[in-house]
Amino acid sequence: MTRQRLPRLVLRTLAVLIAVxxxxxxxxxxxxxxxxxxxxxxxxSADVADVESAxxxxxxxxxxxxxxxxxxxxxxxxxxxxxxxxxxxxxxxxPTDLDGPVSLITMSAAAGPNVAVQAVIAPAxxxxxxxxxxxxxxxxxxxxxxxxxxxxxxxxxxxxSVSHEWAAGGEAAVDVPWWPLGEGARSLRVTAVPFDGExxxxxxxxxxxxxxxxxxxxxxxxxxxxSWASTFVRRAIEDDARFRVDxxxxxxxxxxxxxxxxxxxxxxxxxxxxxxxxxxxxxTAGDVTLLEQFAxxxxxxxxxxxxxxxxxxxxRLFQGRWTEHLEATASxxxxxxxxxxxxxxxxxxxxxxxxxxxxxxxxxxxxAGNGRIVVSGALDAWRYRDADGGAFDRFWRSLVLESxxxxxxxxxxxxxxxxxxxxxxxxxxxxxxxxEAVASSIAGTVTCGAQAARALRLWPAGGDGVFTGRVIVDGxxxxxxxxxxxxxxxxxxxxxxxxxxxxxxxxxxxxLEREARRTGGVVVPAGDAAAISTALVMPAPDQxxxxxxxxxxxxxxxxxxxxxVEWWLRRRGGVR
Length: 576
What we know:
By secondary structure, the chain is of the alpha/beta class. It contains 9 helices and 34 strands. It is 20% helix and 39% strand. An 8-stranded mixed β-sheet has the order 16-15-14-17-18-23-22-21, sandwiched between helices. Strands 3-2-4-5-33 form a 5-stranded parallel β-sheet, sandwiched between helices. The protein has a 5-stranded mixed β-sheet with strand order 7-13-12-9-10, with no helix packed on it. The longest helix is centred in the N-terminal third of the chain and has 23 residues.
C-alpha cells in the first residue's frame, strides 16, 4: 500500500497543478522573427511580371503582393516594406508618413525607335486674346530620317501642332504655337504622335496647366518731352487688345497731352504693371524718385527709352556704364535694327541681355529691388520698324507682356498650375505697393469644380506683403483661387486638374530616384537579379510576442493521463 500511495500522490499533484495553471492562464513573452511581407508597387505601363518573378526569387521567404498606383499615390501604407517598379510613365506622390525605406527598381525601354516627351515649357499665365508658344523637349532613339508630329490639345480639340524632322537622334526642342479656346485654368495635353513600330507610347504625352485670362495689362507711358522711340513703342502696344495703355507727354512748361488721368504720381504707379519712359534724361529729380520707388519697392517693371547717353537726374536709373555709338548702316540688335546705339560696357552676372549689336549688350534687363529696369539702347530702332515683317512690334509686345505679368500689384504663384485630385498645392501671394509701411489685410476663397466656394487660409511668410497657403484639389474640375486685398487690388488664378502625366518620363524617374534615396532605399535595375537580391534581401527584425502556454489543447493529454493512471492504481490497490 505504501509503495502505491506515493505514485498516486504524484499523479494527483500533477493533475491539480495542470488544472490550477490552466485557471491562472500565465503569459510568457517570446522573441520570434517577424513575418516578411513586401509590397511591389507597379508604376509602369508595361508588364511587370518578369520583375515580380525576380523579386519573389530574391525574397523567397517574403509574402510579395503586387499593387498598382491609383489616383497618383503610392499604394503603400506606413510600416509596409515598399518596392517601386517604374519606367517613368506613371507619376505618383510619395506619402510623407511612410516610416521605412522605399526602394526603386528601374525598367529600361526596349531597344528600337522611340520618341519620349521629356518636358514642356509654357507660361503659367496667358491672355485669351493672343496666341501662345509651348517649347516641347523630346528625345529620339533611332529616329534618323523620321518625322514626329507634335500636337497640343485642349480637351478633344487640337489647338496647336507642328512637325519635326529628325536629322539625328538625341534631344530636340520644338516650339509649338497654340491658341486658347476659353478662359480659366486649362489643361493642355502635349503629345508626340506615335508612329508605327514605336517601342513605347507611354512616354509620348505630358499635360501642363495654363491660366487663360482676359484682363488687360495696365501700362503707363510717360514722356517728359516728345520722344519718337516711346511714340512708336506705344503705338505697337496700343493696337493689341492685351494692353490698356495710358500716356502723358509734356509739350511745354505748363502744357501736356495724353489720356485723361494719366500722370506720373503714386496713384497711377500703384495700378500700373509697366511704366515706359521716353527721353528719361529730361525727367525731374522728383520723377526719378517715384520711378525708383515704383521699381524697387512696388515691384513693377520700368522700361527706359533714352535718346542719348545717360545724364541728369535719371542717370542713377541706369545700371553700369553706357556709351553711345553711331554707324553708317543699321545693324541687327536681336529682333530690332539700329544704327545709333547705347552699349553697356560690362554687364553683371545679374543682368539679362535681351539684344546685342556685334556682341555688345544693347537691350538689358537688370533687377532692381522687388522689380526690374529695362534699358533699350537701340536708339533709332523706330526708324526700321517696318523691316523684317513687323519684328519691331512683336518684340515690344512680347517684352511688355512678360514684364506686365511680373509686375502686377497682386500676384498668385502656385507650385504647379496642374495637379491631381486630392493633391495639396502650395500657394504664394505677393502684394507689392509703393509704401512698404502699410500692412495688408487679405482674404481668399477657393472654388473647385461645381462645389461651393470655401475660405482659403493665408499666413504671413516673413517678407512684407508675402503670404503663403495650401490649396486642396478636392473636385473633378479646375480650382479657382480668388484673393482680395482690403481697399486694394484683387487677383484670380486657377489650378487645372488631370489624372495624366504632368512630367516627362526622365523627370519622373529622377524624382522617384531622389525619393527612394531620401527614405533610405536603394535604386537597382530590373535586369540585374544579383543587385536585387543583395540590395533587397534584408533580415526581418525580431519582434516580441505574448504566448499563453496553458491554452494549448495538448495539456488535456497529460491531465487525463495523470487522472486515469491514478484511478487505475487506486482500483488495483483496492481503494475506492
